[in-house]
Amino acid sequence: NLSFYLNLKSNVSSLSLNYKYYRKVPNNAFSFLLLLQSLDLSNNKIDFIEKCAFKKLSNLKKLKLSRNRLE
């Protein structure tokens, strides 16, 4: 469950959550990480990303979603 990461400090700029077996990325999942520039969600089981999952991540430059179940 991605809610585990709600306790992260908001000044995180890079986050790797690969091989965690996540299935879904909910809306605003990382909205508290306003300085996030790099997010690695590769090698999970993600088959669904909600429309506004990354909406508030205006600084995001790199997003890795390889090796998931996305079509």
What do you see in this structure?
With 71 residues, the protein is mainly β. It is built from no helices and five strands. The strands form two sheets. Strands 1-3-5 form a three-stranded parallel sheet, with no helix packed on it. The two termini are 22 Å apart.
The number of distinct helices, counting runs of at least 4 residues, comes to 0
Mean pLDDT: 89
What does the radius of gyration come to? 11 Å
DSSP E strands, number: 5
The ordered string of helix (H) and strand (E) elements is: EEEEE
Residue runs with pLDDT of under 50 for 5 or more positions: none
Strand order of the largest sheet: 1-3-5
Give the helix level as a range of percent. under 10%
